[in-house]
Amino acid sequence: MMLEYEVLVCRSDTPEEPTPSVPPPENPYLIGVGRADCTGPVADVPLMGYANPDQTAGGIHTRLFSRAFIVDDGSKRVVFVTAEIGMISQRLRLEVLKELELKYGDLYRQENVILSGTHTHSGLAGYFQYTLFIITSKGYIKSSIQPIVNGIVKSIDVAHKNMRPGRIFVSKGEIVGSNLNRSPHSYLNNPEEERNRYKSNTDEQIVTLKFTDLDGDGMGVFSWFAVHPVSMNYTNRMVSSDNLGYASYLFEQEKNIGYLPGEGPFVAAFATANSGDVTPNTRGPYCINTGERCDYLNSSCPIGGTRMCVAFGPGNDIFDSTRIIGENIYRKAKELYGSAKQELRGSVHAAHQWVNMTDVTVQLDSTHSVKTCKPALGHSFAAGTIDGGGDLNFTQGAVEGDPFWDGIRDALLGAPSKEIQECQNPKPILFSTGEMNWPFPWHPDIVDVQIITIGSVAIVAVPGEELEKNAAFTNSEVVITGLCNIYTHYITTYEEYQVQRYEGASTIYGPHTLSAYIQHFRGLARAIAEGKVGELPKGPEPPFFSNLFSLLGEPPVDRSPENTTFGDVLQQVHPVYKVGEVASVTFVAGNPRNSGEMRDKTFVTVEKFHNSTSTWEVVHTDASWETRFYWIKGTANQSNATVEWHIPLSAESGTYRIRHFGHYKQRVIFPVITAYEGSSHTFRVTKTLYSL
To answer: Can you say which residues are annotated as belonging to the binding site?
Structure first.
């Protein structure tokens, strides 16, 4: 993944200390934290990450949340949001900013609001306005983007309403064994003297900001760690926040005692850092058809090519791997949260520009300059990675084109111009997206560059999946956060670009992309340091396209099997379960898309009966780690919903039931949507089967 640079340079080591002993500053920050559900339709919509329109949603592993943090120094204010989605698209950011302007005027605007996606590959697609992403997402899906917009805005609303004086502490540590470089061959192309500065070819550092009120009570925590949330891999069909989301879940559940997931005042956000070529699948890649190690140079197998080369681990399955990586991240963040004592003081600042990344001149020295290119994707882009390979016979590391595929490209899309081929060299161009504009441009020209600072910490918002880390700041504590504001694939070093593995082939603005970003971030940093942010040129505004279209049709009417109705149980629970076992029940179901927006609601509850009051208490929802909601699409417009409760060892003995809620569509003269619900039989949970 590009050369790994230190994310944060703290002024001193911070020994463990449970409570800061330094008195609060005279002029404390105003701090607000907020969280809101941003889960969209959990059926039929493609998942965003593997660019496979056939990998469509079919249920919920965990719900998706947006988490917002606001910091105000008394005169200026900054906002950082991380949402559990694949990435922030330009269209999504523009729609969020429009909603914020309607509510707050110019209080929250493009200069002082950073939007970041965690990069889970199990979030929902359909929120892009550029053709390449429209094709792989089944278009622009209003029912998918609207819950994300609403969730992000609501998380900011909650943070805004909850603002109070507080303190911020920064700490850092290392997590070893939870990430793996999936392109080590590319990394070795970086200069040896630079590689020798680091003990690993991945960034193992975690950076944590601790937020408290003036009484020392915790308000929230914000952490950055470099890992791809792809523990839930390309075989998954369930909406999931993946490993970073599970770290948030664990931290919030510990702090918000007595609250269901997604509820409670404490907010724990885990954002992606420089995760470009970093996989959580720490067992590494194997040929799944033979068990042999994949080819080191191009990550392929003798039989089956790149599709058969897949990385796994560290767990026994995708759920177990998600749990292990998430727990590792959570445990270290919790340790850092408890020991943090380096307090942030000073002003907050924000700097932002729009930049035409297709036409940036980078001054290398007093006599030499280079330029960025119109966007293009190389042949190795189609090869995919060890986290999910391509279906066709492309391989990573291709520095020459293929006459067969180039001929098909030329016939269907047109040949790349000589200018773009020379500019992107040595990339063999598969898609010359910068020269493709029907029905909309295939890739963005205008991108955001943005920095916010809180005291001595600078948060650099990168619109891709990597960046050199100490490029713009020398004396500050710098956090690189990726997948921000707009998605532009990858940003490799010049040296790694030459190797043209997946990451280099996906560095769309050419070999000098990184240098161009460094130049612009240095400009923002200089403006902040010199107090000249107001003099920064705004830059060319990005487009906001009209007439976007969806390729996903409306859900059909729902039908139930003969002699059944929606909510009926097709397969019942057992009468007794022991903790550690799985209770499962299957219902006649409607298409979840017919339930409309289901933010802050649930398709599932697990309920415990209280004999003393003869009432049922909800102990789990579909936001819980312990539940899994599978929607199974059948034939003749029929479908089932299977609900699993993975009974934790901590579950109390007693009587339980599982309920399912949904809606089904009928057509009389016009479509009619009707709510339904179903319940399992009651069943007993025991600590041991011998305790009946």
So the answer is: 119, 228, 465, 490
In this prediction, residue 238 carries a pLDDT of 98
Annotated binding-site residues for Zn(2+) read: 119, 228, 465, 490
Extract the tokens encoding 269. 């956000």
| Range 556-561 average pLDDT | 96
Cα 74 to Cα 28, 450, 476, distances in angstroms: 9, 21, 22
pLDDT, tens digit, 9 for 90 and up, residues 30-50: 999 999 999 999 999 999 999
Burial 170-193 (b: 16+ CB within 10 A, else e): bbbbebeebbbbbbebbbebbeee
Beta strands 627-633 and 639-646, pairing class: antiparallel
d(CA 596, CA 552): 15
Place of tokens 């910490």: 457
Question: Phi-psi bin for 414: left (phi > 0), alpha (psi -120 to 50), beta?
Answer: left
Express each pLDDT in 496-533 by its tens digit. Answer: 999 999 999 999 999 999 999 999 999 999 999 999 99
120 in Cβ contact with 228 (< 8 Å): no
Strand partners of residue 49? none
Q: How far apart are the first and last CA of the chain?
A: 55
| Structural contact between residues 658 and 594, judged by C-beta atoms closer than 8 angstroms | no
Return the HEC string of 305-357.
EHHHEEEECCCCCHHHHHHHHHHHHHHHHHHHHHHCCEECCCCEEEEEEEEEC
